[in-house]
Amino acid sequence: MAKLTKEIHQKVLKKYRKGTQTYLAYAYLVRGNRLSTGEFFNICGAMRLPNKICNLRADGVPIKDRTLNNKTREKEYWIDEDDLEIFRGVN
Fold it and tell me: What pTM was computed for the model?
């Protein structure tokens, strides 16, 4: 999977308006946080995190995931620290 580049970052910021669920998910992940489907529901009351992740991946964002619970299909998503290197030194 490719690294998160400045071009991908700018594309995502331009494509998704602030306050949209996809923007919120991206903003949370790009800060180095992990985000589960349950947390996403608590943050914005939406159950469609996998759809938002799919959209971001299609835009080139290198998002990793793992299954937390097979019965409920709850997943956790994150962007590896190495993939976030474009943000090092940026306040």
Answer: 0.85
List the chain residues with pLDDT less than 70.
1, 87-91
Provide the H-helix boundaries in 16-84: 21-30, 37-44, 49-58
3-class secondary structure, 76: strand
Please state, in angstroms and rounded to a whole number, the distance separating the CA atoms of residues 85 and 8. 13
Give the list of residues 6+ apart from residue 73 with CB closer than 8 angstroms, or none: 37, 67
Q: How far is CA 37 from CA 3, 8, 30, 80, in A?
A: 23, 24, 16, 18
Q: What pLDDT, in 10s, does the model give residues 47-72?
A: 789 999 999 999 999 999 999 988 88
What's the rounded Cα separation, in Å, for the pair 33 and 3?
17
- Quick check: 61 and 79 in contact, CB under 8 A? yes
Residue 72 structure tokens = 């409920």
Q: Under a CB-based contact definition with an 8 Å cutoff, are residues 36 and 74 in contact?
A: yes
